[in-house]
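User: Can you predict the 3D structure for this chain?
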Amino acid sequence: MNTEELQMAAFGIILSSGNARTIVHEAFAAMREGYYDRAEQLLEDANADMLEAHHAQTDLLQAYAGGTEIKIEIIMVHAQDHLMTTMTLREVALEMLALYKKVDAK
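Assistant: Here is the predicted structure, written as structure tokens:
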């Protein structure tokens, strides 16, 4: 895999996970206002963007497993960091949504 292909894959991961992160923050705002159904939908939307990033990541892993040489560059490290941070943020948001609902139910 040449440098340009790797950079394009990295930017795809960054773009998709960045979109997801923005949506997760919208979900936090919806939670604060008590719009739990909206927050839940936003978190599903964020998951769709994260799946796109994950597919790009999986494609790279499959290429590597198939013998394609992949030279790791700092942009790919950044892309992976972006994706993993967003995945963790979404998990926290799901927990917070459950807690918001539980507190409001009392």
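The chain has one domain: 3-105. The helical segments are 3-32, 36-65, 74-105.
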